[in-house]
Design a protein that fits this description.
By secondary structure, the chain is α+β, with helices and mostly antiparallel strands. Helix 4 crosses helix 8. The longest helix is centred in the middle third of the chain and has 24 residues. The mean pLDDT is 95. Bound molecules: flavin mononucleotide (FMN). Flavin mononucleotide binds next to strand 3.
């Protein structure tokens, strides 16, 4: 029996869902068919947009969906900033000339981890708290990420395309000034939004055998699984002609995803973000116990 999501699982993982039991599991078991799930499995980031306007009421609806995401302890520590002022948008986009979609997308949102609101609510109610702890940082970061992804899925459901933008954190001081961010509020990622100008392509994911662990963590097959993934991904979409920093790392006859990501991760990113957070309310301590 062919797996009901055969096409989507092949597209996402480049594997045969029946033969390579991992992506699809046992197809003999009943699996509901659902168009939305197909769309999630086939989703992709978009960076080029039609000039078509996205109505304000639609953006507000997507934000309502975003804030329907789960929230740790119902603390509701995500915020979103809709950057509508052309002058501020231009200043922000000017910081990242390599990513013209930041200035060009019809809509630009910024999803913020917001530890300040809960701290202020503590003050309003007269209950002292310290929300600059590690927990105080982590919970808003997770809330903002969940709101971001919920916004993306809602937008894609309605035919829009999105591109999250975490590069904002690489120029955090300037970004915080442009957006007037107070202490204890930090960007998790921006979000470009609009009607896609192209079909885009599905980014193949690591095999589930590398990312899903049953009962106990086991990465003993990582090397072999990554090698296979590199080959499958290369066969679909080669990046051999885009070797990163050859003057530092050399040029390889086979250049796959893992080499590219290892090179990328070896270069520092987000410099200044930790210092910014420490200077703006986060001590990252353990919570004080009485
Ligand atoms: C938190 C986060 C931050 C990202 N930041 C950027 C960014 O700054 N610029 C960019 O062009 N894409 C960015 N992306 C998009 C990723 O590059 C993209 O999701 C990834 O290549 C996988 O592609 P897919 O979403 O089409 O599967 C970001 C994605 C996430 C989830």
């Amino acid at each position: 029996m062919t797996h009901p999501y055969d096409g989507e699982l092949r597209a996402r993982f480049g594997l045969d869902p029946d033969r390579d039991s991992a992506p699809g599991g046992d197809p003999a078991e009943e699996i509901p068919q659902h168009a939305w799930l197909r769309q999630v499995l086939m989703r992709r980031t978009q960076r080029r947009f039609q000039p078509r306007r996205v109505p304000e009421s639609l953006v507000r609806l997507l934000l309502a969906a975003a804030f329907s995401a789960s929230s740790k302890s119902d603390f509701q520590q995500a915020s979103a900033l809709w950057l509508r002022d052309p002058a501020r948008r231009e200043r922000l986009a000017g910081l990242f000339p390599d990513m013209p979609w930041i200035g060009g997308a019809p809509v630009f949102l910024v999803f913020l981890g917001d530890a300040q609101r809960l701290a202020r609510i503590g003050e309003l109610r007269g209950h002292a708290q310290d929300n600059g702890t590690m927990e105080g940082f982590f919970n808003p970061a997770v809330d903002a990420a969940l709101a971001l992804q919920t916004c993306i899925l809602a937008a894609e459901t309605l035919g829009l395309g999105c591109c999250p933008i975490s590069v904002l954190r690489n120029r955090i001081d300037e970004v915080a000034r442009i957006l007037d961010l107070p202490d204890l509020v930090f960007p998790v990622a921006g979000l470009c939004l609009g009607y896609p100008a192209q079909g885009g392509f599905i980014s193949m994911r690591l095999p589930p055998a590398a990312t899903i662990h049953i009962d106990r963590y086991d990465d003993s097959r990582l090397s072999e699984l990554v090698d296979g993934y590199d080959r499958r991904r290369d066969a679909r979409h080669s990046i051999a002609d885009r070797q990163r920093l050859p003057e530092r790392f050399g040029t390889l006859p086979f250049y796959g995803w893992s080499e590219d990501k290892a090179r990328q991760a070896a270069m520092p990113e987000g410099i200044g973000f930790a210092a910014y957070l420490k200077a703006h309310g986060f001590a990252f301590d353990e919570p004080a116990t009485e």
